[in-house]
Design brief:
heterotrimer; A: five-stranded mixed β-sheet; 35% helix; globular; C: alpha+beta
Chain lengths: 158, 282, 759
């Protein structure tokens, strides 16, 4: 079936099986391998994408559900010459180790900061609590989100 | 390849349901797609309810509120009405799965999935919620406790869907309490949970009580005996401990990979003790 | 050096650009998958593939009959078939390999394969495996179900207990721990036009894999190339073969099309290796003043049906069984046994986690018996440089246990613990526990722990480092850039890394054993220094300087301090021959030189290490009296891992290891019933989320290690060992209970509390 949606700001139309999982559509058909598959059952958060700005799990969505939506994957966050403040903070604060959970954690953080621009560390932990990380112990991911929140707020202020 | 339909109205939905009775209906997909992958469901047609506006959102209807079945947990958590009128539900939603699952999963899904561990169910029981069931022909209301029959079993025909839940406001209760015991703080399936509504007098006496436990029986456990045992007593450790023993005898948990029946039984009773800290003691 | 520099790989990982082994796809690719036994022990009567073969989209189905090589793999003992032949020995054994056009066809074909199995009685308990008449996992093994056993006696052995004033006993059980890396086992392979098979896999051991693949399926070594991108987590679970051999076999039957194999989470849980379960019997004796006098320990390790690295794990555990304490008399016995359970293998800290959990609880139990402060008891017995460990290894390197303990002793979390505990809220009990740690790095004696580094000045004037050791997330690749950049005095943006590739980089051993930066770093220092000499010499020639004395290598150029003349590296590089532009160096790690009174077999398995890191941990916890849940409120560690080259990477290693350790202590309960996994996925195998972890403070105790690159020692594993005993001791401190089984789940804690009440 033909499905129309916006992917990282670009309008697209794809022709694929209606019941194709969104994670497969992104990774195999569209070559966007930033979203990772790790459990395929909604337990780990590695496949997190944004759908109309909300974090969702692309392993538990079917292609047909993308119709008319705006999708953001980790590939769509940085502008031409500049990382998104969250990406910048993940790099600077040491929140990245093996990196397999990183795209999902960055996108979950973006959803959190949109709803709560200046979260406490406890609120950051809660916002990230669906994104399993086996390398960092989360401490530096929390540092990074805290830092990004500050940067994003200061950039928004005139 | 399976057909996937996304009706935008209930009328469109009826057409898609009647065409093939062997259709799987879902909203958030957080349970159905997991079951599909595991081979526990076999179907060639999926109908997704996420775009039917008539069954989304929270509506204030005076003495009651209506929550559309396809309202996500996140929408509910962000609803001022839910937060002010139904704190017991909001407390359960806050610890339901993870943020992304809350962005996808719906209250209707949590009800129809009928897991003994469904986090919204004990709050809906103590709120005496009613499920609104609708088909092309009729619409009816049924107490949530009647609707849920057993694990994964509900009173719902193939031509019907749950349209939403009706919850009566209950301003007489000044304690809204929910606690889930899981194996971690997030992404945790309930090993036992307790929802409680209490009216506690200024001098610390329990004037009325509604209590419901999750994960300690085939469906949510509510017990008139337990509630009666608390009413008229002082809200304190001593009385709560006494009733905890009664709770242990009332619940009927099972052993599974997460916890033993013995632990569930004990902890179901002990969860009562936390009520002593609900801020309404003398 | 010493600055907190962001990692070289962070940028591509945070944008999604980094290509992991899981990220390979192409339009002409095939999918490969394995039919697994699903029963723990059985004879194979037949493998019926006809129906599956008929399925449109199935390319071929292979069994052991299609393997021309040894069909055996294993790091030490080659006892694991690629595809099972006569019998299956655990539920995860592979029986048939399917190649299909797409993943859905693959799944259906696997369902259609019927394996005719005649069940055999199984053996599932690590002590019962030793019984006379127990079912044999390997009929051809000369010592029944024993893979390796060891007996070490020092001093007067068990007779010394007679002279102890206090004797403590305990039996500790630790379960499997699943690595649960986010990237499950995955790879991509293709047979090239010249007949070579190129395997791109998520692995810690590309060079060893190459040999294993070639032998197992009967290919010339030259025909196998292994490329190792950054793995999405590994932690020991990718130390050895996972998908590699199967992929190579598939690629040889794919008509040149690329093949992908990606185990899903459930398959990873069933077929992948895990931390060995153990049963550990301890007896510890001391004098009245707390001086340790005698230790007896019987250690049992369940390796499942295959060695993998079981014997080596057991041996490292044995070396650490007594902790970093002075104990003059000991009797240590250990057995690593075969069972029909899942496969035990390497997991970060490699057996030391289990014995430290036991020994460090014994120390607290002893302190309680003697009414001593547990920290003072440890300080009193802590080994210092020049002393011998319990089994007789002389500590020749930097030895910072006392320093680590002193840092904990002075910290407010320790000094003010009384007030903190007293402030617990309703239904809460608070406790503070500590643990002292040591962890040896490298392969130990006999098996050479070496690395070969190569550095190149590219014709474009950039620096290329050929990394021989995989970076599975520890950041050693970044540290390589830091080391070479520092010696060659070049900016990070002019340094590039070639990741491990058996064609391009040089063999340098595995990414394991806290050795990566230590061993490869030392080799890299040599290579970088050689290259520096070569660059300066060439510059001197071109600048007609009498010697290199006045020349300085600075970012992007060589500068003559005497004349002010300079030559950019871009120009210099073009004028250098390839042999001048590249430099290599070899390094072999030192091992313990003591003549230990141990069996040769233990030496072969690595016993006797020379480079050892130390640590002390503190956990402040709160037990909920209603549910039994244990919350870790604060966590403090002090670590002597030599000089810290990059504090950010140092903290990453400590934090991550603590998180895995806390998972092991409190959450991770890999359950197996008669060989069958009862926690098959991430919904039932519970790991800590961000909400379950505390903020962590990680103090470096920077003693200089003379043999280490820039004074460094390994830090990858040690912190895994602290959380279990620190938390267990804290729980005992909070409410007087001690659980001898892990993890300390709310259920176990609450039932223990209730048992205590009823007594």
């Amino acid at each position: 079936m033909k499905i129309r949606f916006k992917l990282n700001g670009t309008a697209m139309q794809v022709d694929c099986a209606a019941d194709r999982r969104v994670i497969d559509l992104l990774r195999e058909n569209l070559g966007l391998t930033g979203a990772k598959e790790s459990c395929a059952a909604g337990e780990c958060g590695a496949c997190t994408i944004l759908v109309d700005g909300e974090s969702k799990l692309s392993c538990l969505m079917l292609a047909a559900q993308l119709e008319g939506r705006e999708i953001t994957t980790v590939e769509g966050l940085a502008s031409e010459d500049r990382l998104h403040p969250l990406q910048e903070a993940f790099v600077e604060k040491g929140a990245v180790q093996c990196g397999f959970c990183t795209p999902g954690a960055v996108l979950a953080s973006l959803d959190l900061l949109k709803r709560n621009p200046s979260p406490t560390r406890a609120q950051i932990r809660e916002g990230l609590s669906g994104n399993l990380c086996r390398c960092t112990g989360y401490h530096k991911i929390v540092d990074a989100v805290e830092e990004a929140a500050k940067t994003m707020q200061s950039r928004e202020r005139p | 390849m399976k057909q996937v339909l996304l009706p935008r109205t209930l009328d469109e939905l009826w057409d898609s349901l009647e065409a093939d009775p062997n259709t799987a209906v879902y909203a958030g997909g957080t349970d159905l797609l997991v079951n599909l992958r595991a081979g526990r469901i076999n179907t060639n047609k999926l109908v997704c309810l996420e775009r039917i506006e008539e069954i989304r959102g929270v509506r204030d209807a005076g003495a009651e509120a209506f929550i559309g079945a396809a309202t996500t947990h996140t929408n509910l958590l962000e609803s001022p009405l839910v937060r002010s009128e139904f704190p017991v539900l909001a407390k359960a939603l806050r610890v339901l799965a993870s943020p992304a699952i809350r962005n996808m999963g719906t209250i209707g899904g949590n009800i129809v999935n009928a897991s003994p561990a469904g986090d919204t169910l004990p709050p809906l029981y103590v709120l005496d919620a009613e499920v609104e069931i609708t088909s092309r022909k009729e619409t009816k209301r049924m107490p949530v406790a009647d609707f849920l029959v057993g694990p994964g079993q509900v009173r719902l025909r193939a031509d019907e869907i749950v349209k939403g839940v009706w919850i009566r406001k209950a301003p007489e209760f000044n304690v809204h309490h929910f606690e889930k015991v899981g194996l971690r703080k997030s992404q945790a399936c309930a090993v036992a949970s307790l929802a409680a509504l209490l009216r506690v007098s200024k001098d610390g006496n329990i004037e009325s009580a509604r209590l419901a436990w999750g994960s300690v029986g085939p469906t949510v456990v509510r017990s008139a005996k337990v509630e009666e045992a608390l009413v008229g007593r002082e809200l304190g450790i001593e009385k709560l401990s006494e009733v905890a023993a009664l709770v242990e005898r009332t619940v009927s948990p099972i052993d599974d990979v997460r916890a033993s029946a013995q632990y569930r039984r004990i902890v179901a009773g002990r969860l009562l003790l936390r009520l002593a800290e609900s801020g309404h003691k003398k | 050096m010493g600055a907190a520099v962001p990692r070289a790989d962070a940028y591509t990982k945070v944008t999604g650009e980094e290509k992991f082994a899981a990220d390979y796809y192409s339009p002409d690719m095939l999918w490969a998958g394995v039919k697994r036994a699903a029963v723990p022990h059985a004879l194979i009567k037949g493998i019926l593939t006809d129906e599956a073969c008929m399925l449109p989209g199935v390319i071929t189905i292979l069994t052991h009959r299609d393997i021309r090589g040894s069909n055996r793999q294993g790091v030490i003992r080659k006892d694991q078939p690629v595809l099972a032949d006569k019998k299956v020995r655990h539920c995860g054994d592979g029986v048939a390999l399917v190649l299909a056009e797409d993943s859905e066809t693959l799944r259906r074909a696997l369902d259609l394969i019927r394996v005719d199995l005649e069940p055999l009685p199984g053996v599932f308990d690590l002590e019962e495996a030793l019984n006379q008449g127990a079912p044999l996992v390997h009929e051809d093994n000369s010592c029944g179900n024993v893979l390796l056993e060891a007996h070490i006696q020092t001093g007067d052995g068990p007779n010394a207990f007679e002279h102890c004033d206090a004797v403590i006993e305990g039996c500790f059980e630790t379960p499997w721990q699943e690595h649960a890396y986010l990237e499950t086992e995955v790879g991509w392979a293709r047979e090239e036009g010249d007949g070579r098979v190129v395997i791109t896999a998520s692995t810690q051991t590309p060079f060893r894999d190459r040999v294993e693949v070639a032998e197992a399926i009967g290919l010339d070594l030259e025909r196998v190339r292994v490329i190792a991108p950054y793995p999405g987590g590994a932690f020991g679970g990718k130390d050895g073969i996972t998908v590699q051999t199967l992929l190579a076999l598939a690629a040889l039957n794919a008509n040149g099309r690329p093949v992908k194999m990606w185990w899903n989470r459930e398959e990873s849980f069933v077929a992948g290796t895990k931390r060995h379960p153990t049963r550990l019997y301890y007896r510890l004796g001391a004098k009245r003043d707390g001086t340790l006098h005698a230790l007896a320990a019987r250690l049992y390790f369940d390796t499942g049906p295959y060695d993998h690295l079981g014997g080596v794990v057991m041996t490292l555990a044995l070396e650490h069984a007594a902790g970093a304490y002075r104990i003059p008399h000991a009797l240590l016995d250990a057995w690593c046994v075969y069972t029909n359970n899942p496969i035990g293998g390497a997991f970060r800290a490699f057996g030391v986690t289990q014995v430290t959990a036991a020994m460090e609880q014994m120390m607290d139990m002893l302190a309680a018996r003697l009414d001593m402060d547990p920290l003072e008891l440890r300080l009193k017995n802590a080994l210092t440089r020049g002393e011998k460990t319990c089994i007789g290894v002389t500590l020749t390197g930097s030895t910072g246990l006392v320093d680590c303990l002193e840092r904990i002793k002075q910290h407010p979390l320790w000094t003010e613990r009384g007030a903190w505990k007293a402030a617990a809220g309703p239904f809460k009990k608070r406790g503070v526990g500590i643990a002292a740690l040591m962890h040896a790095a490298g392969y130990g004696t006999v098996v050479p722990d070496y690395a070969n580094a190569k550095v190149e000045l590219t014709p474009e004037g950039r620096i290329l480092i050929y990394c021989g050791v995989v970076d599975m997330g520890q950041g050693n690749a970044s540290t390589n850039a830091q080391i070479a950049g520092s010696i060659l005095n070049q900016n990070m943006d002019s340094i590039e890394l070639v990741l491990p590739d058996t064609d391009r980089t040089l063999p340098s051993g595995s990414a394991s054993a806290s050795r990566c930066t230590y061993t490869f770093g030392n080799a890299l220092i040599g290579a970088a220094e050689n290259l520096k000499k070569q660059i300066l010499q060439k510059a001197a020639d071109l600048l007609m300087a009498p010697s290199t004395d006045d020349l300085a290598l600075v970012p992007g150029k060589v500068f003559n301090r005497a004349t002010g003349a300079e030559i950019p590296l871009t120009r210099l590089a073009r004028l250098m021959a390839e042999s001048e532009r590249t430099a290599v160096s070899h390094f072999r790690a030192p091992v313990a030189k003591d003549r230990l009174n141990i069996a040769d077999e233990l030496r072969l398995h690595g016993l006797g290490h020379a480079v050892i890191s130390y640590g002390a941990h503190l956990a402040a916890i709160e037990v909920d009296g209603i549910t039994g849940a244990v919350e870790v409120v604060s966590y403090l560690s002090a670590t002597d891992c030599g000089r810290v080259l990059n504090p950010q990477l140092y903290e990453q290693q400590i934090h991550g290891a603590i998180c895995q350790g806390l998972g092991f202590a409190l959450f991770e309960d890999f359950q197996v019933d008669r060989g069958s996994v009862k926690t098959p996925d991430l919904a039932t195998y519970i790991m800590p989320t961000a909400l379950d972890m505390p903020d962590m403070e990680s103090l470096p105790v920077e003693l200089h290690e003379p043999t280490g690159p820039f004074g460094l020692k390994g830090v990858g594993e040690i912190a895994t060992n602290g959380p279990t005993p620190a938390v267990a001791n804290a729980v005992a401190d909070a409410c007087g209970i001690r659980l001898f089984r892990l993890p300390m789940t709310p259920q176990r804690v609450l039932l223990a509390l209730q048992g205590q009440e009823s007594q």
